[in-house]
Amino acid sequence: MTPQTPRAEEHHIPSPGQHIVIIEDDEALGRSAAAHIGRWYGTVHRLPRPDDDTLRQQLEQHPVDAVAVVSRDDIVALRYALLAEHLKPGIRLVVTLFDRTVADEVSRTVPNCTVLSMTDAIVPSLLAGCLAPSYAALQPDGGGVVAVRREGGEATVEHLPGRALAADLPAHHRASPRAWLRSLGTSAKALVASLTALSVAFTVDIVLGVTVLHEHWSDSTWNAARALTTIGSSSAAEHGPAWYKVVSAVSMLVVLVLAAIFTASVVDRFTGHRMTSILGARSIPRRGHVVVVGLGQVGLRLSARLKDLGIKVVAVERNPQAACLPLARSLNIPVVLGRGGDRFLLERLSVRQARGLAAVGSDSLENMAVAVAARAVASDQRIILRAGSDEVTTDSQALFRIGAVCDFPRIVGAFVAASVLGVEPSSVFVAEGRTCALFPDGQVVDLATWDTRTEEPVRTN
Question: Where is the domain boundary, 384, 407, 430?
Answer without folding.
Answer: 407
